[in-house]
Design goal:
Elements lengths: L3 H20 L5 E4 H5 L2 H13 L2 E3 L6 E6 L1 H9 L2
Antiparallel strand pairs: 1-3, 2-3
Helix pairs in contact: 1-3
């Protein structure tokens, strides 16, 4: 079960991926993995988004996460606005 802080972070991150998607015409968001490893809650929040299918990471094999919101993630945002 996720703690409250991770859930809040997760929702916030998803919202910013959503906004970023529209601001950049579907662009992906780059995050250095080192930054994540320094902050466990952010890492857990992002893991949650990936596992839930709300976001994808196309940065495998690099030192960055390349995050993009999925259709499911957008539905979640619209439902929870």
């Amino acid at each position: 079960m996720m703690n409250e802080e991770v859930k809040k972070l997760s929702d916030m991150l998803l919202q910013s991926l959503y906004d970023y998607h529209f601001a950049t015409n579907g662009g992906s968001y780059n995050l250095p993995k080192a930054m994540l490893n320094a902050d466990l809650n952010s890492k857990l929040a992002i893991d949650h988004l990936l596992e839930a299918g709300y976001a994808t990471d196309s940065g495998q094999g690099t030192d960055h996460l390349v995050l993009a919101i999925t259709e499911q993630g957008m539905e979640y945002i619209k439902k929870n606005k």
